[in-house]
Design brief:
- It is built from no helices and 30 strands.
- It is an all-beta fold.
- The chain has one domain: YVTN repeat-like/Quinoprotein amine dehydrogenase (Methylamine Dehydrogenase, Chain H), CATH 2.130.10.10.
Amino acid sequence: MAHFPAQPLTQLLGSNGPVHALTYSAGPSTYILTGSADRNIRLYNPARTPTATGAPPTQLIQTYAAHGYEVLALTVSPDNSTFASAGGDRAVFLWDVATALTIRRFGGPNGHSSRINSVSFAGEAASLLVSGSFDASVRIWDVKSGNVKPIMVLSEAGDSVSCVLAGDGEIWAGSVDGRVRKYDLRCGKVVTDVIGSPVTSLKKTKDGRGLLVGSLDNQIRLMDAETGGLLKSYRAEGWKNDQFRMRSCFGARERWVMCGNEEVEGPDGQVIVWDTLSGEVAAKVLVPGAAAATTKRVGPDGVMKDRKNVISCVAWKGDGKGDQWCCGGADGAVTVFGSP
């Protein structure tokens, strides 16, 4: 089995609360963007050398402050000029990266009525934004026009929409009602696949034929994106995910499947790594310091709960093609890993 890059390279500090969302920038993925419970978004360059102990970390490039509530979701445009964020404000914020100012806010009377769990760019040249909310709806917003009202509202979900994924003329939405819905916007059709447990995470393969589905039943599924058939199931002894949203991802050109562990014993957090093809556990990576913090997370019943040792989000550099990855969670630090 191929070697997995599990060497901690650096920690990105500055957040005053749990990290709920993180993503690499587009293209060469030089930067890491994080969204936190402290209502701020931070842009880091993990390659920059830290300063002496006690000095501000030089990896922090910019802080984006406009949210009044926790930041739960991030998405970056393909040209890295803009990004969108969302969370407890019930609005989608569109940001200019260079000026650190909001360009537009999508919401208001015609927007979501509860927190937004997920957001994704869509359309040609990132002309659309798609958002999924605790109000059980998916809304589509026109980025290029001056209209802040949604151009479409999708209301088929029976419970909170926890994750959305946009493709070429298609939108995927995962819900706490235990279903993944595929919307074909060209034909006006919706196809529903029943998972049976609350869905928390969605990620498509590069060829578009596979869909990685995270759910609250201690299992991650690789499904056929066209038929909804199960291709592979990922489980692990000692791995738990039945209470909180944990975002999984592919790594190393889809060689690996990765997800944080909801609860572990000992001083560190943990990320579980599976071989995508075999489904076998390839590595259990310790995340230094994550267990020192207690975080409040929203459970499937919508109630805030305390949980230690949570690594809730993972991301791989180069959208799965690079040689570096990072994770974040309860203690507010983002740990960057690679090969020694």
